[in-house]
Amino acid sequence: MPLAENDTVSTLGDRGQRMWLYPLRVAGRFVKARTAVAYVLITLLLIAPWIDVLGHPAMHFDIPHRRFYFWGLTLFATDANYLMFLFGGFIFGIFFFTALLGRVWCGWACPQTVFLESVIRPIEQLIEGQPSQRKKLDAAPWTAGKVFKKVLKFTAFLVVSGAIATTFTAYFLGRDGVFEAQADPFSHPVGTTIFIAMTAVLMFDFGWFREQTCIVACPYGRFQSVLMDADSLTIAYDAGRGEPRGKPSDKDAGDCIDCKKCVVVCPTGIDIRKGIQMECVNCTACLDACDSIMDKLGRERGLIRYTSLNALEGRKLRLLRPRVIAYGLALVAIAVGFTTAVTMREPVEIAVTRMTNAPFVVLPDGRVQNMMTLRISNKTAEPRTFSVAVVDPPRGEAISPVETLVVQPGQVGKFPLLLIRDNPNAASSTFTLKIEDDHGFAQEVGTPFLSTEPDGKDAT
Ligand code: SF4
Ligand code: SF4
Fold first, then answer.
1. Which atom belonging to ligand 2 lies closest to the Cα atom of 269?
2. 377 CB under 6 A from ligand 2?
3. Closest atom of ligand 2 to CA, residue 279
4. pLDDT value of position 3
5. Which residues of the chain have pLDDT under 70?
6. Neighbours of 308 (CB within 10 A)
7. pLDDT digits over 388-414, tens only?
8. What's residue 457's pLDDT?
9. Are 123 and 248 in a shared domain?
């Protein structure tokens, strides 16, 4: 049985070959707005690991030190609960925005669409010209001119891919790590591998795979059908208004003049007039293309527009539905929870742990000494200087061989600490310390103190 038109992938030829697309770039209000958003997103993505916010890179996933810097917020390994908030926000954000606005992520914010449509295709057009010229060039035999253009284009793609891969690596290695890895690739084998792999993947995508990523590789295109319903916003063709297609002079025809401009601008090669299709990334190109035709004909814009399937069938556009409200409430709850947790979290975290050598030492004067490690996490943006005082026992001493206990912002300081007291009446008692800093922080910490039994026997 022959396949219905929409049962085949738009870029698959009759013999199973890849149909190369030459989409026309269109200018229009949505494409302009989308391009502006794309440049803001590209800027944020590319500058985040290179600029400082409150003394640290705006974004740095410092996995070896188990620290995560996020626009002024420093998260430690012990702050995994915050990452749960961020993860929950990401998941419910996708649920909410897809149920409400359909594939808005694909069209407006996905890095694939953003870089391909706003960086790669403009470069290609600059070097190889308009779609008809590019098609002719690809079909032409190899000449010096063709080789020059192709080398120039792929060199430009390589520069863009390398820049993105460098920034991506900087998210994990940090600025210095990236420069060190690029100066001596063998000093950072992991960073160098990430950089090379990322550059290769991007070159493959920008140079050849392109819309196939959205059509055959990205799981989100399939996932969205579960999250969307007939009331979700989507870009669609109004068949009721457009059909039957005909010449502008034909009084019995609908508004679609079958100029196919909506088809030639589509980056995934589909004809939106055939209905909602999985390949559509909601990029708005066909919408702007059709609006430009309607403007020329003096007809109302919006033959292709943002609408919902129910609205197209004459029902009310109903964006606020129970599932959207439920997802929205969950998102608000996560945002409130995250903000509250961040606002209320202690700026400094203290832990006193026992060293792994002898549990205690009896000093020549009969007193007992425990060797501990004082671990201070400074989660603030400024360096802090700490002091340790003994609260209990009254004649106890806490001595650190380190003169000043300074912990840099976002760092964890580990200091040796000797706790000394008279031999208590029990093998184990408690030592209470008060840790203060030069910014008003003060916290009492209790730690078990080990010693000899009262009769002089070892406690261990
Ligand atoms: S651009 Fe508009 S008028 Fe032209 S074919 Fe597409 S829907 Fe019809
Ligand atoms: S059908 Fe329209 S919105 Fe969908 S991908 Fe093609 S041009 Fe973009």
1. 6
2. no
3. 5
4. 47
5. 1-8, 453-460
6. 21
7. 999 999 889 999 988 889 998 878 899
8. 55
9. yes
* Residue (of 48, 53, 50) closest to 177 by Cα position: 50
- Nearest ligand 1 atom to alpha carbon 261: 1
Cα 385 to Cα 277, 312, 382, 397, 436, distances in angstroms:
61, 66, 10, 20, 8
| Domain end position, chosen among 319, 345, 371 | 345
Number of domains into which the chain is organized: 2
Same domain, 230 and 92: yes
Q: Give per-residue pLDDT as tens, 442-458.
A: 999 999 999 876 555 55
Tokens (6 digits) for 202? 């991007």
**Distance (Å) from CA 93 to ligand 1 centroid:** 34
Does 128 share its domain with 268?
yes
Q: Is 283 in the pocket of ligand 2 (CB under 6 A)?
A: yes
Task: Confirm or reject: Cβ of 259 under 6 Å from ligand 1.
Answer: yes
State the DSSP code for 78: G
- List the domain range (segments joined by +) for residue 66: 1-140+210-345
* Residue 199 CB–ligand 2 contact under 6 Å: no
The answer, yes or no, to whether any atom of ligand 1 lies below 6 A from the CB of 235, is no
423, 413 contact by CB (below 8 A): no
The secondary structure of 115-148 as a DSSP string is: HIIIIIHHHHHHHH-SHHHHHHHHHSPP-HHHHH
314 and 396, same domain (yes or no): no
